Amino acid sequence: MLEANREFSTVENARILIVEDDPKYAEWIELALRHLGAKDIAKASDGAAALALTETDPAFDLIICDWLMPKMDGLDFLKRYREKVQSSMFLVLTAKGGLEDAFEATQAGATNYLVKPLTVDVLQEQVASMLQ
Fold first, then answer.
1. Nearest Cα to 87, choosing from 8, 12, 23?
2. Is the pLDDT of residue 1 over 60?
3. Main-chain dihedrals φ then ψ at residue 41, nearest 5 degrees
4. Helix/strand/coil for 38
5. Residue partners of 88: CB distance under 8 A and separation at least 6
6. What span, in angstroms and rounded, lies between the C-alpha atoms of 78 and 63?
7. Domains along the chain?
8. Residue 8: phi, psi to the nearest 5?
9. What pLDDT score does 49 carry?
10. Cβ atoms of 72 and 45 closer than 8 Å
């Protein structure tokens, strides 16, 4: 099993992957991360693109992933990614707000789960907490 690069000490040194099918929302997430000091950010537009990206370069410290996307949803990507990498932090973002949904995401290997819409402060606080 491959391991993520755990040599970071702050958000500034973390490798982050954003998986989001809405380009404007992906840009919003990226800007929020850059304001925290993140420098190494990759993006994929759906789970299938993210899976292809992680086939050649799986070592991300944090993956921020939408759940509901075309081609391959975030939960399917999460399950397939976890077959190879266990150590990466994985934050699921979704409009699905039920307790059963949160349970399903964490059972699949999500580190945490946030319900959309969310504020920049909530996203930044969660990311900073996950990467300390």
1. 8
2. no
3. -125, 125
4. coil
5. 4, 59, 60, 61, 62, 63, 81
6. 9
7. 11-127 (3.40.50.2300)
8. -90, 155
9. 96
10. no
Amino acid making up residue 88: S
How far is it, in rounded angstroms, from Cα 112 to Cα 102? Answer: 8
- N-term to C-term CA, the chain: 24
- Give the pLDDT confidence of 114-130 residue by residue, as tens digits: 999 999 999 999 999 99
Task: Write the pLDDT tens digit of every residue in 59-114.
Answer: 899 999 999 998 899 999 999 999 998 889 999 998 877 788 888 899 999 999 99
Q: For residue 78, which of 67, 87, 52 has the smallest C-alpha distance? A: 67
Pairing of strands 89-94, 40-44: unpaired
* Long-range contact pairs involving 116-125 (C-beta distance under 8 Å, separation at least 24): 118/93, 120/28, 120/32, 120/35, 123/29, 123/32, 124/32, 124/33, 124/35, 124/36
Sequence length of the chain is 132
